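User: Quick sanity check before I run a bigger batch. Here is a single chain. Can you write out its predicted 3D structure?
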Amino acid sequence: MRDRPSDLLRAPEGLLLIVTPPRRLDGLEAVLRQVNAAAPGAVWLGVAMRRTGDDRRRLARLKALGAATGTPLLAVNDVLYHDAEQRDLQDVVTCIREGVTLETAGRRLDQNAERHLKPAQEMARLFADAPEAVAETQDFLARVAFDLGDLRYNYPEEPVPQT
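Assistant: Done. Predicted structure follows.
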């Protein structure tokens, strides 16, 4: 949705939408207003505390944007791996995707190993300035009506010539 939300917004019925803000927040307010208009009551602003030095300032700015647009904050981790020890593997995958070596990857790699699943008490600690974001996450999950048991493989019909 980063570049063209129009396809998504043409038929948002039944969707729960999490807008993940880009690094630079320019233009985010307009995007939130557009998405909220298309899917009222089904839009959240995903916020991750990535321990990059500006987390509290960024959280305050996102809280203000959320309040101005009527978009509740949702506490997320922006997870790439289940455990912090998997960061090395993520760096290798990033280098493969970007076509660079570990030595030349530079800022393409994350600054730290914080993009892993975190327990509830750690999320509460990280979001001490926005406990409503953690509570909203529980409300969001209660609205999800998906179960892994719903997945089924449907083999497509293949045209078979008559012999």
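The radius of gyration is 19 Å.

User: Great, the batch can go ahead then.
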